[in-house]
Amino acid sequence: xxxxxxxxxxxxxxxxxxxxxxxxxxxxxxxxxxxxxxxxxxxxxxxxxxxxxxxxxxxxxxxxxxxxxxxxxxxxxxxxxxxxxxxxxxxxxxxxxxxxxxxxxxxxxxxxxxxxxxxxxxxxxxxxxxxxxxxxxxxxxxxxxxxxxxxxxxxxxxxxxxxxxxxxxxxxxxxxxxxxxxxxxxxxxxxxxxxxxxxxxxxxxxxxxxxxxxxxxxxxxxxxxxxxxxxxxxxxxxxxxxxxxxxxxxxxxxxxxxxxxxxxxxxxxxxxxxxxxxxxxxxxxxxxxxxxxxxxxxxxxxxxxxxxxxxxxxxxxxxxxxxxxxxxxxxxxxxxxxxxxxxxxxxxxxxxxxxxxxxxxxxxxxxxxxxxxxxxxxxxxxxxxxxxxxxxxxxxxxxxxxxxxxxxxxxxxxxxxxxxx
Length: 421
Ligand SMILES: Cc1cc2nc3c(=O)[nH]c(=O)nc-3n(C[C@H](O)[C@H](O)[C@H](O)COP(=O)(O)OP(=O)(O)OC[C@H]3O[C@@H](n4cnc5c(N)ncnc54)[C@H](O)[C@@H]3O)c2cc1C
Description:
Blueprint: H1 5-12, E1 35-39, H2 43-55, E2 60-64, E3 69-71, H3 76-80, E4 90-92, E5 101-104, E6 108-112, E7 117-120, E8 125-127, E9 130-133, E10 137-139, H4 147-152, E11 156-157, H5 164-175, E12 181-186, H6 196-211, E13 216-221, H7 230-239, E14 245-248, E15 253-257, E16 262-265, E17 269-271, E18 274-277, E19 281-283, H8 285-289, E20 303-304, E21 309-310, E22 316-318, H9 331-349, E23 359-367, E24 373-383, E25 387-396, H10 402-420
Parallel strand pairs: 1-2, 1-9, 2-5, 9-22, 11-18, 12-13, 12-18, 13-14
Antiparallel strand pairs: 3-4, 6-7, 7-8, 10-19, 15-16, 16-17, 20-21, 23-24, 24-25
Helix pairs in contact: 2-9, 2-10
Bound molecules: flavin-adenine dinucleotide (FAD).
C-alpha cells in the first residue's frame, strides 16, 4: 500500500517524531506535525497564523511575507489628511515569532496544489497540509489607459495599498497651491474598503479648509451613487465642506494623461493638480497561481464560508479582500474570516467537523473631519445553503461625532494588536 503524506499523518498521529524522506520541503517542520503555510502577513494572514498557533499548538505554521513592516490601510486616510504620520500606521512583525510562527521573508511565485507545495522568489519549496492565502488585492492599472506611465512618473497615485504612495499623496497635497484641484476617482464596486474613498474626500477637505480654503475636490465615482455610509458622508459634505466637494456619479476613469494632468471618463475630461485615481481590483496573483481565482470573471475567489476553503481546490483556504462575498472587503472582516478559518483548520486536521454555524461581525469607522467619525456595524451568522445572513444587531450613524472619532482610533489600535501582538 502506498501512503501519501496526508494518509501518513492520519495513521502516524500528531506528535510522533518520524521523518519523511524524499519530501520536497525545505522550510517545513518535523514531518509528523501538521503544517499550515499562510501567504501574506496582512490583516487576514497574520491573524490566522496567530490563532492557528493559539488553538492548535501541535500545528506548525509558516507565514510568508515579503515586507519587513506592516503598514496599515486603516488610518492611512488620516495620514493623507495630515492628522497622523506614516510612523503611526507602521508596525513591526517582531511579536509573531513569539507565538511559534515561523516567519519567512519572501514572496510566493508558484503553487502546486496537487503536490501541496509553494515556491518562493528566493528559491525555496515549502510543502503544506493546508494552505491559507490572504494576499489582499492586485490593482488593475492596465484598465486605465496611460496609468502605468503616469504612475511611474509620479503624476498619478492610487494610495490603495498603504506605503510609499500614501506618503507621496500627502506630499503632493502639501505642495499643491491654494486654489488647486484634487481629483479622486472611486472604482466600480466591488473594491477594497467601500467607504474608504469618501472618508479620504472628507479628510482632504478638512485639510484644505484649514490650509488652502480656495481649493476644491472633484470626486469621480465609477458607481451610480455613494457606495457606503451615504447619509454620514453627504451630511459632512453639505455641512462641513459646503461648495468644496463636487460629486460626479457614473464617472469611471478611461484614461490618465500625466503630462497634461487630465483624467478622462466617458463623460468628462477633468484637469487636476493632484490626481488620485483608484483603479478596479482583483484577488492577489498568488490566487491565480493556486487556481482559486475562480469566479465567473476570473477576478475573485469563491469559498465555502464555514471553512473559507476554496470551492474548487481542496486544502487551499482564502481570506480577506481576495474572496468573492456579498460582505464588504474590510480589515475587520479579514480578521473574522481568519479566526473562522483557523478554528476550522484545527478541526479538519484532527478529522473533526468544523463549527457549522460560525458568527462573524463587521465594524467599520470613517472619519468625517479631524475630530469626528461615524460607523457601520453588522453581525452575520452562517447558514448552510445561504451563506452569511445579517442578524438584527448593528446599525449606522448618520452624523459624525467626537466620541466615535475616539472609538475609531481605539479600534485601530486593538485590531493591530489582535493581528500582530
Ligand atoms: C484607504 C483605506 C482605508 C481603509 N480603512 C479600513 C478601516 O477603517 N477598517 C477596515 O476594516 N478596513 C479598512 N480598509 C480595508 C483593509 O485595509 C483591507 O480590507 C485589509 O487590508 C484586507 O486584508 P487582507 O489580509 O486581505 O490583505 P492585506 O492586509 O493587504 O495583506 C496582504 C498581504 O499579503 C502579502 N502578499 C501578497 N502577495 C503575496 C505573495 N505572493 N507572497 C507573500 N506575501 C504576499 C502583502 O505583502 C500583504 O502584506 C481600508 C483600506 C484602504 C485602502
